[in-house]
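Sample pair:
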Amino acid sequence: MADKNFGYIIKNHLKSNKHTYIGLFLFYIIGVILGAFAVNDLDFQQKDDMTKYLNGFLKILNSDEINRISLFKISLSDNFKLLVLFWGLGFTVIGIPVYYLIIGMRGFTTGFSSGVIMGVLGTKGIFISAFCFLPKEIIVIPCLIALGVNGIKLSRGILKSWLKKSIKDENGVMQKIGPYSFVTVFFSIFLFLATIFETYISSGTLFFLNS
């Protein structure tokens, strides 16, 4: 019975927020496309610098000089800051467009990074993108989109209460803060798993593919 109720809640949530989900996903895809095309706009000197930087990183990786614990701490710190940012934006009206901007920028970074790697390493770069970066993105992007939808929903509720200036609506928003924060904590678990994957599995696979 509980499983049916949970399934109904998820189904109803997706149905009620499908346009927001689609919008955020489209911003991500557009970002990926723009990032991939941006690689083609680099001049010869910029491409040469990118090639030297990437080859230098791969050389360090092959020499096993990377401290994975430090890498884990850096990655965890970055994901935690992003998580706090997504949580905090939900309490602001201006957070609504910012969610779309952040998701789009994330897509741009993904497209640009993958484009550079494939451009420099060719076929090996395709394998590196597919086996090292794509699995992490499959975990992170749905989480960020879900957190974005969660935040946008709260922001709209706050905006609605401001426009109506209704005490009842303001109380309703206050009651949503608990569930809103719970959703943030829930998806933080997946972001933590993505951090572990990025630090140990992705870097290990990258070492194997480049050896």
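The chain has one domain: 2-210.
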